[in-house]
Amino acid sequence: MRVDFHTHIIPENFTELTKHLMGDKWPALERTCACGANIMVGGKVFREVTDQVWSPEKRMSDMVREDVDIQVLSPIPVTFSYWAPAEEAAILARIQNDFIAETVNQNPAKFIGLGTVPLQDVQTAIREMDRCIHELGLRGIEIGTNVNGNNLDDPSLIEFFEMAEKWEVPLFIHPWETLGKERMPRHNLMYTVGMPSETALAGASLILGGVMEKFPNLKICFAHGGGSLPYLLPRLDKGWEVWPHLRLLEKPPSYYAKKFYYDSLVNDPINLNYLLQNFGHEQIIMGSDYPFLLREIRPGKVIDETLDLTAEQTEAMLGKNALRFLNVPAKVGS
Fold first, then answer.
1. Where are the chain's structural domains?
2. Pick from 110, 82, 116, 86: nearest CA to 10
3. Can you state the percent helix, strand and coil of the chain, rounding each to 5?
4. Rounded to whole angstroms, how far apart are CA atoms 327 and 148?
């Protein structure tokens, strides 16, 4: 079974649903043709997309062609809108969560849903997480790598992680509003360099800030193979060793990094082997970033091309790990 853990979706009528939100900073979906649109932010094109990003029928057609059994649906990170007033961001979150839940309910054998929450106000975020998991039946929450420049170990977020652990809610952490963005206006460096660096900062913050030590049963998966975090762990361990006065942890950072899950979107079997050697196949989840340009085609290609994997390892990474991470019984998708 192939479960594509990392895919993004947005309602086709997104702009109509959000027209009452005032100001041009809100993301909008501007149709360009029957099968295409631009995501607009601040009156400028943020990203060109096709009907793959809103059409369940198109997705299911692609899934048949690319041999994917289940897609895990999550919002597009630009819609997190942590910058906005919490009550307005909560409206946007509810619109997307309702749409994802409806899409899953209409095609339960093909889709699993993740929700979004307005993390700029933790109490509002917890209420929406509660609704997502206990009313809508979504299987986890997607969050960004920072909240208005505050790293994920910010004290204001502790109660959110506490409730996620208590309710056994898996969290998918995806880069957004990347560090150094002002230095990356050309070459699309924000996507190729900024996002991996931003993800590393988020992971290091959760570790060094003591969040993973405080909440050892918290389930977290990082997009894009954890970005540059896996390759920085030896340096983080060295810092922990030589600066004992800064330590908040009983064990070195690499110990806590082994508790994370990582999607397989690392583009090269050499990189996947590095993840395997450091974290084990049990912590790697197949994800393609469908339907965007940087996605992996066919989903799971890097796993297929990695030599010397056992059948057990391959099956786990292609699908079983995703279902286990999301607390979904394997028989649901079989």
1. 3-327
2. 116
3. 45, 15, 35
4. 30
Cα–Cα distances in angstroms (integers) from residue 19 to residues 88, 194, 217, in the given order? 12, 31, 40
What residues does 75 pair with on adjacent strands? none
> Quick check: 230 and 275 in contact, CB under 8 A?
yes
- DSSP 3-state assignment of 148? coil
In order of 19, 38, 59, 120, 184, the CA distances from 146 in angstroms are 26, 25, 30, 10, 18
123 φ, ψ (degrees, to nearest 5): -65, -40
pLDDT digits (tens, 9 = 90+) for 208-232: 999 999 999 999 999 999 999 999 9
pLDDT the model gives residue 333: 43
Torsional class of 249: left (φ above 0), alpha (ψ -120 to 50), beta (otherwise): beta
Above 90 in pLDDT, residue 199? yes
Adjacency order of strands within the sheet including 28-33: 28-33, 36-41, 44-50
Which pTM does this prediction carry? Answer: 0.96
Contacts of 265 (CB under 8 A, 6+ apart): 6, 223, 224, 225, 287, 288, 289, 295, 296, 302
Q: Which CATH superfamily is domain 3-327 in?
A: Metal-dependent hydrolases (3.20.20.140)
The 8-class DSSP code of residue 37 comes to E
Of residues 134, 128, 107, 99, the one with CA closest to residue 116: 128
